């Protein structure tokens, strides 16, 4: 589903290389986790995949469902089904969350040549999905993420995914700032999205998230590339022993 070959990427107008020959393949229906120390390039990978400005691909290729997406704008990648849950979700003062999610959904449907969702149908949909994450209608009427706790922001990120139903989810340290109760709720929402026709890339520092979102494969990232891959047991090894041997090898 997602195939990355020899990916090199830089910031600061190409002066600071971050990704240095990264190879990764995530098949349809699978959940892959990427773990690694700070500065290894995990978040940069998520930004490059979703087309964020300021991150320049200097070599290599990213294919999504057989299509080279390197020249696509972020909104075009989103319409094709790529979704990024941010480590630090942004606040949008003055824009009600309900309006934001409905406009996002209809913009993507329009880009795919589909009919927009009517207001009554959208309200039925949002109530159904919000119930999964214990998100109240009062929260949905507030401006996007304004005054929300860290856990509430992460729940809102997953709610958007439940509504948009992307083909491929990238979760960038979704567990950051969550207490154990919030982590369970968010993980339930993520697990509700697991499907034979959907894949996920879970980026995290810690094994605890993977207790709730069980990965099919775990990759270790260091110095801008994947340096080791294995099953779920690899995450437990990293939790016990740390990243030192992989950092030295990289």
From TrEMBL:
Q: Name one Pfam family in it.
A: ABC_tran
Is Nucleotide-binding included in the keywords of this UniProt record? yes
SMART domains (UniProt xref): AAA
Keywords recorded for this protein, A-Z? ATP-binding, Nucleotide-binding
The residue ranges of the ABC transporter domain are 2-248
Concerning PROSITE patterns, the annotation shows:
ABC_TRANSPORTER_1, ABC_TRANSPORTER_2
The Swiss-Prot or TrEMBL record describes its family as follows: Belongs to the ABC transporter superfamily. Ycf16 family.
- What name has this protein been given in UniProt? Fe-S cluster assembly ATPase SufC
Say which species the protein is native to: Hyphobacterium vulgare
Name of the gene: sufC
